[in-house]
Write a structure and sequence with these properties.
Butyryl-CoA Dehydrogenase, subunit A, domain 3; elongated; about 170 residues; mainly alpha; 8 helices
Length: about 170
């Protein structure tokens, strides 16, 4: 029994090391708040740990925790949207060490509804295919494409670009 528990703990720890920063960065790009992004990401990993006996046997437990983190982040973003909007400029860089997108892009993405924002972050910033974005967000691929289309249309005037309407 002890060897089994040790192997499970090692599996969780390995997944945590591999995925935490990437997921935290994705959550940051949805929320634009480093502290809240870390809290949401940690909450997702706590939920993963509590269900590790089941989720650890999945083919891609990292996808499960990413989905939980994105859902928590979009819920948090909806709540935050009800509060007065704070200025994004001057915020510290997000987790993961990668550079944040241009300030104008970040502000424009922040203005999107939470689900569109999450779709944009996963598709454009995390470079996930539509099928995986749909899986993470619990949406159909068609719904993801519609969200991305609407997001591009909403972002175009802010970024002085013509949206691609293919």
């Amino acid at each position: 029994m002890s060897a089994r528990v040790d192997a499970a703990a090692e599996g969780f720890a390995l997944l945590y090391e591999q995925e935490y920063l990437r997921i935290a960065r994705t959550v940051y790009l949805v929320l634009h708040d480093s502290g809240r992004a870390e809290e949401v990401t940690q909450e997702a990993f706590v939920r993963l740990y509590l269900k590790w006996g089941t989720v650890g046997r999945y083919d891609r437990p990292g996808a499960w925790v990413r989905r939980v983190a994105i859902r928590l982040a979009t819920r948090e973003a909806r709540r935050e949207r009800r509060r007065p909007v704070l200025e994004v400029a001057g915020a510290p860089p997000g987790p993961g060490g990668d550079a944040e997108p241009d300030v104008d892009v970040a502000r424009a993405v922040l203005a999107l509804p939470p689900r569109q924002r999450a779709a944009v972050v996963l598709y454009y910033f995390e470079d996930l295919p539509v099928a995986e974005v749909a899986d993470v967000l619990g949406m159909s691929q068609s719904a993801v494409k519609v969200s991305l289309f609407r997001a591009r249309r909403a972002l175009a005037p802010h970024l002085e670009e013509v949206p691609d309407v293919r």
